[in-house]
Amino acid sequence: MSRVFVAMSGGVDSSVAAAILAERGEDVVGVWMRLVPSGGDVDAPRCCGTDEAGEDARRAAAALGIPFYALDYADVFGERVVDRFVNAYAGGETPNPCVSCNQHVKFDALLHDVVRKFGGDRLATGHYARAATGDDGQRHLLRARDASKDQSYALYMLGQRELGRIEFPIGELRDKSETRAIAARFGLPTANKAESMDICFAPGDYRELVRERAPLAFVPGPVERTDGSVIGTHAGIGALTVGQRSGVGVATGERLYVLHLDTERRAAVVGTRAEIARTTYTLTDVRFVAGEAPSTSFATNVVLRYRGIPLASHVDVDRSHEIDHRYGKRTYLLRHLFVYTQTGFTRMLNNYNSATGRLAEATFGFAVRQSAGDIKYFGS
To answer: 0.85 exceeded by the pTM?
Structure first.
């Protein structure tokens, strides 16, 4: 029988994922990732990486009668998630740390260890997403049945090799109430555990973490209009994001949004809603689940923000900037991603680098086929 390892965070979702697999008769092993030094509280994640969360995960595994191991990934988490988060804000970007954690910790470091070190065949997680094999023999990343909990957008970096070894057991569940009902049926101690919706390693205001690690990101600078006229002073680039309206540091009587962050001059350029509206974006670090772009030019739907409405769009792929990646992945530069919308207005984009006018990492997927409520992603 093949062995499946379950990444148990100490929350109800991953606990139920393990329960579903165990009930199915799988050879299940629970693993918990320590993300901070034992007993430490520096950058202490509240959701999954602390000793308290590890104890909750251990208790859930014990209730299911499955083996349980704790693995230490504090170094990789600090370097690839926390440091990248701080550096992104200091560089005028708006990062998504969950994407970095999935990419570098769960589905790189952990998946590698599960397969290479511990002889596991598959890794399961508590993500609300689905993966299936299509008629073409390719693995497809699918949205969860519960659209309100869908997390497939944060898994855009997964390719064929990863998806061939990954399971998302709770992605088929109707809603969160069904998840908790299953947890109660198995007597899991996490059945009623509250969800954590904040940035796990930055309790309270994330800007305090950035301020501590990158103080130069909070040196005041000018707030300018597009013509160069100075209309105020902001409290630091690290506290701003493109599309932001409140807290910019100006009061002119009209609604002004951050259009651009000039990190070299520490200047924030603001403008009206009409000025921030755009329908064309240049993206980098774009991944296609199939491994290749379907063509150099294609029509698709694009979601510009979490739980956003899919918008009809057109994509041009610039293969001259193609970069080979480990596991056979490639990064493409997508030029002229044109979004057909009446206003083209987007308040905030994940990882938008206002200094270059590019999205440093695309954190949304291109939906290309839809049937019976399933949207299949070939790229993100």
So the answer is: no
